[in-house]
Amino acid sequence: MHYPGIDMLHSVPEIVYDNAFTPKLVSSVAHAYGREHVMSEVSAHAQGGRVSDMQMLCSQLLQYALGVDVFTSYYSENMFDALKYKKYNEAIGRAVSETNGKTAANTALYYPIDTVSENTLIAVEGLKKNGGSDARKNDCADKLHKTVTDMLDTQIPFDFIDLELLKNADVKDGRIVLPSGASYSSLVFSPCVIGEEEKEIIRRLYTQSVKVYVCRDEVYSGKVENAAVYTDFSDVADEIRESSFRILSNGKGVAAKETEKDGVISVLLVNSDNAGKELTIELPSDPVLCDPLEDTTTVLRRENGRIRIDLGQYATVILKYEK
């Protein structure tokens, strides 16, 4: 497949954010196998087309932050007037052009498909599986979902990686390196069964200075050597973080996309909430704030290495600054 793709039938940003697993998984496939684009068929089908203009725009910019860069629209041509559609298309175009550059995903999140498959309760008679324990029904998938949300809420850029990719990856200079060129300095395991193959990979990575983090969990217990153990992802987020910026307050529900080009960092911030947020952000230099919808720019001055910005309901801004 040249362009891995998905359908996103929701245009409520809170729902898109909660379903970030899907665009993140597909964009991770694109990064792993060297695909240049990720496509999404976008609509408000699940809402019967009854969404606001800001919900529609925010839902697409959220998907862009999550790795989608080609949108096939299934919105009604009469949903908004032509001038408003033009303005929103131009906003998406500015967001893409202003964040053009190398992405900063330095963390790999293990995709435990075997544990998920063996412990998922499928709501179709005759296809129910529970892995032999009621306590484990849907447990791995639910905890993986929580880890994805925790990583998004702390603005940690990541890609999914599976066992096959890990088995065939190189390790160079303390990084997992895939044939596509994607590379990661950290590997995170959400709660799952860690078998002998995974343990051997962890041992190999440890000997070559790749940081590995395993979640302590009551259901999926067992000793894992050569890895740091965490209980809640927030405990290790700052240790894993390689981004040049850090949101110090009110970061939940804010999706981020960080890129670099010619020594300039661009950070797209998308508020998926229907309420505004005052963000305190730590940065290495004074940024220019770009509003892709209004096509405006503002130079901001840091105080003690920090700025404060108001990110409105369903709003998007771009920060650009030197490393």
Structure description:
- It is a single chain.
- The chain contains nine helices and 20 strands.
- With about 325 residues, it is α/β, with parallel strands linked by helices.
- It folds into three domains: about 5-100, no CATH class; about 105-240, Rossmann fold, CATH 3.40.50; about 245-320, Golgi alpha-mannosidase II (Immunoglobulin-like, Sandwich).
- Strand 7 and strand 8 (about 175) form a beta hairpin.
- Helix 3 packs parallel to helix 4.
- The two termini are about 35 Å apart.
- Mean pLDDT is about 90; it is low at about 125-135.
**Can you tell me the CATH class of the largest domain?**
Alpha Beta
Percent of residues in beta strands: 25-35%
Tell me the CATH architecture of the largest domain.
Answer: 3-Layer(aba) Sandwich
Strand order of the largest sheet: 4-14-15-20-17-18
Helix content: 25-40%
Spans of at least 5 consecutive residues whose pLDDT stays below 50 are: 124-135
Topology-level CATH name of the largest domain: Rossmann fold
Radius of gyration (CA) equals 20 Å
Number of folding domains? 3
Largest sheet: 6 strands, antiparallel
> How many strands in all?
20
Mean pLDDT metric: 92
* Global outline: globular
Distance between the termini: 36 Å
Q: Give helix and strand order, one letter per element, not per position.
A: EHHEHEHEEHHEHEEEEHEEHEEEEEEEE
How would you classify the helix and strand content by structural class? Answer: alpha/beta
Number of helices: 9
